[in-house]
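re the bet — no i am not wrong, look at it urself. input seq straight from the record:
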Amino acid sequence: MTNLLNRDFEPSATGESNSFILDRRDFLRSGAAGLVVCFTVGLSEREALAGTGSMIGAYIQIDTDGKTPQGNIVTVYIGSTDMGQGILTGLSQLVAEELMVPWAQVRAEHAPAGAAYANPLFKMQLTGGSTSMRGWWGPLRQAAAVAREQLKAAAAPVLGAPDPSYVTMSNGTAIYNGNSVAYSQVASAAASQPTPNPLPTPLTSGFQIIGKSVARTDIPDKVSGNAQFGIDVKVSGMVFAAVKHCPTIGGTVAAMPSKPSGALALVNLTNAVAVVATDTWTAMKLANGLSVNWNIPSTSAAIDSNNISTTSNALLTSASPTGLQTIVSSGTPDTALSSATFKIDATYQLPHLAHACMEPINCTASVTATSCEIWAPTQGQASCVATAKKLLNLTDSQITVHTTFLGGGLGRKIEQDFIAQAILISRAVGKPVKLTWAREQDFTNDKYRPSAFIRVQAGMMSPSSTSTASLGALVYRNVASSIAKQNGSTNNDTGAVAGATSLSYTIDNKRIEFVPNNVGVPLGYWRSVGESYNIFAVESAIDELALASGQTDTLAFRKMLLPSTNSRALAVLDAVAKLSNWYTAPSAGRARGLAFMSSFGSITASVVEISLNPTTLQIVVNNVYTAIDCGTAVNPDSVEAQMQSGAVHGLSAALWGQATFTSGKSNLSNFNTYRLMKLREMPTVAVSILNSGGPIGGIGETGVPCMAPALANAYAKLTGKRVRNLPFYPGATMGGL
């Protein structure tokens, strides 16, 4: 995995997001890139995808079983994983709009693993980096527009139309001269129609479903309990497994223990021992009771939070640290900094974080000599196939991946450790196996978000006017472990400074550096990736510089730093000011803090309003206000929900989130030592959505990064104390609910 999750994808010159411009030749040869259409008449997903139907690609199925008055239901097969963000619904809205079918006739399912479902931005089937809508906005609408024209072509002779151009489409029917025919009646014929030449242009206006808060396709089954999460999977003849990992990072099995009574088998997984039993609870109890001899490498002792802090702080100030990467350099920032009238030099520290998904790690696998079938709550279907191929020496066609719903993904379920374990256990016992990690195994064997130690030096001259200003100098250095380097990349890790490199402010001279400090902690992508720590440093520093220069209105200060031509960014700041009543003083004992970000293709600003508990003097978050411009909000309700969930995710991390290590061992055990926001602590979260019509932006990550700096800025305003080291309350425990 590269650092693609941190990329911002640029719009084309025509304004269409992600530079997606497709001609007929591209379309005809694009099966491997996922730009093809599928009609499958009256078949189940398994039958359709086995190739027994009339297939044109992979996306759209039209049933003919009379489930609706119009006699057809459109099923959309989605390559992205729905982790609760509603992407099955959002992407299906694109198809429904182009096909001109009522929303009630549309359903969505996770697609299997396959090249046709590769995200056009990643060129692989992976969900992360807020790229699903950005990647599929153009291609999926194009594919559905092709399907619409093929339906027209099939309907024209049935309706007696001179040619397809005379046929109109409405509510899932083709219409000509007062007569109509349901899509279901011509779907089979449509499947054999040639691809239109030239390709039809997707709709650009008059949307009936895009931009509407339609009912989500996944909610009914989730409410009724029929939705299948990974932990719900049942396969005939399966057995159950749990694991006991070496508690020290880097440790391996030295000698296998004796098989305990009640276990069907023990399997050596190199850094863990799996116990196979007749049910999950028995497997977990037996795994917990295992006494395993471990080989512990001498280097593991150095994996220690105190050591990490000492080395990181030294690297922050070193003139030429080993591995220094200069990611951005323009002008003469050191000279400009020395001559600045107002300046700051501040260091910000952020800890390792766990993912803490509500659904524990799990995977079901069935391995035979010639096949591998996987059922998993995964964000990385393509990686699952690659893992199985590597372990089993099978071909793509011999591997099947079923994506279930996820009880939280947050980047953790991109990883392949639990997938590989399930495959190896199934191969060892010769049966389908459901592997479920105990919660403690999940916390102590996570792929953690890196800690980050960031030094920000910034300076400016006196503003030339009350409306415009620029940063004269920015020297920025982040010292952190590199996810990209851990994954084998030899390139500069631009993702490690994501957020710092996408600043919208006018900066005359700047240098942005990354110094990798790979300390041995297993790393993984965490919701909002590099922005989760860089935006804290940047937006805290902006507030500090504003106050150092005598600018008490930090929102107005940000507007001064933004180019007057950046109308979208200015509009977002104006919107959050209005939403939060920024220019009206808050109630006594309260303060508001602001943070701003342009990342993941979207522009976001958040205001956090806080007070202090009169007894404990700890922070109470009263209100959160967020304004976002993501170009076009395909489903405004989902956008609002993602901003709300991002708020609780970001606030929990800022207030209490922390994973520490002692001599190679994680100090986490369960939620009791990993404090999250409780329901009674949840603030009101108000959201303003700006539909600027700009390129499509991401949503899943964007609600998180502004929370920590807005909180710190509010706290500084309320108390006069600047918190630069997160979390606010280290060592907090969960306690009662």
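see?? The longest helix spans residues 132-159. told u. also The CA atoms of residues 578 and 688 lie 9 Å apart. so pay up
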